[in-house]
Design a protein that fits this description.
isomerase, single chain, mainly beta, Beta-galactosidase, Chain A, domain 5, 43% strand, 300 residues, GH-type_carb-bd, binds 6-O-phosphono-beta-D-glucopyranose
């Protein structure tokens, strides 16, 4: 992992600074006129985003989150790569890939027109090569203003076609999950992970009254999280993503997972922009793929 001296050339006075934070891990803090954000360099894991005009963060972080080398953080935006969910053939490999728990290097930063940018690249190691021996440089480019932009860019330099799945597994902060209405998935087919991946059809808006874990396939639509309690709508825009994963653990599963306070799960909803299941990618030699999202909030 880069030390703070190596990171200094990327800092931008008044906008971007680096520090050692919880778990002894390096973090980047961004602040500008539009909003604030923090990114843990382990996993390129964004842990906070709040527009200045919002009284609550847009991205949720568990109050019981643990920060440690090699451990995924509960909340924020885990980067799931180069596979989403269980590995297709290796049950011993970590769920959602290794990208979220390994060091990423800062490779670029900049500021223009009220937007602060930071680019990170996954650092391959003997441990990652043991699970993914392919030459596929991957970068996460983050841009912060009153909206948050993220682009996950994978390039296949391996010389052979490669199957790959991925997601930006974003935990959004909501007032209360029981009052949230999610729009954008009307008419979509989904795999219901709560019922052993049964394939179902969805219609209308989505409301939550229990554990929900669904992979909506063949949808490139944006989603809206309407949050009556906080009086706001979060707009989830995406490009280069053909499925959307919706997840809330509810009480029992949250308690079993740890990393949650007793009622903490009520303040989160995962709406994940992904390429997985029916929409997993096959990257041809020399091909690049970009999964891009932007998140903003407005009054309801
Ligand atoms: O605990 P993890 O590995 O971060 O995963 C959290 C959840 O992530 C979601 O994307 C999955 O659909 C769920 O099945 C899973 O429980």
């Amino acid at each position: 992992m880069q030390d703070l001296d190596a990171l200094k050339p990327f800092s931008i006075p008044g906008q971007l600074a680096f520090r050692t934070g919880p778990g002894g891990l390096p973090y980047a803090d961004i602040a500008n006129a539009g909003g604030t954000a923090s990114i843990c360099l382990q996993g390129a894991h964004l842990t906070n985003f709040q527009p200045r005009a919002q009284r609550a963060p847009v991205v949720w972080l568990s109050q019981a989150a643990r920060f440690a080398p090699g451990k995924s953080i509960r909340g924020g935006v885990p980067v799931c790569w180069p596979w989403f969910g269980a590995h297709p053939t290796e049950p011993g490999f970590p769920a959602h890939g290794f990208a979220r728990t390994v060091p990423w290097a800062v490779v670029d930063s900049g500021a223009a027109q009220g937007v602060t940018q930071l680019a990170l690249r996954l650092e391959p190691s003997a441990a990652t090569r043991a699970q993914w021996p392919h030459a596929t440089p991957v970068e996460l480019r983050i841009s912060v203003s009153d909206t948050l932009g993220m682009a996950l860019i994978t390039r296949n330099e391996a010389g052979v076609a490669l199957p790959l799945s991925e997601a930006l597994h974003t935990y959004f902060h909501v007032g209360d999950i029981g009052e949230v209405v999610l729009q954008g998935l009307d008419g979509c087919a989904y795999l219901d992970k709560v019922e052993n991946f049964a394939r179902k059809q969805h219609s209308g808006a989505l409301r939550f009254a229990g554990e929900t874990d669904r992979v909506y396939v063949n949808t490139v639509a944006d989603c809206l999280i309407d949050d009556a309690r906080l009086g706001r709508r979060i707009r989830v825009r995406k490009q280069g993503s053909a499925c959307t994963v919706v997840w809330t653990p509810w009480a029992e599963k949250a308690a079993a997972m740890g990393d949650y306070t007793a009622e903490g799960w009520r303040q989160m909803l995962c709406v994940e922009s992904a390429n997985a299941a029916d929409n997993a990618l096959v990257l041809q030699p020399g091909e690049s793929h970009t999964l891009e999202v932007s998140y903003g909030a407005e009054a309801l």
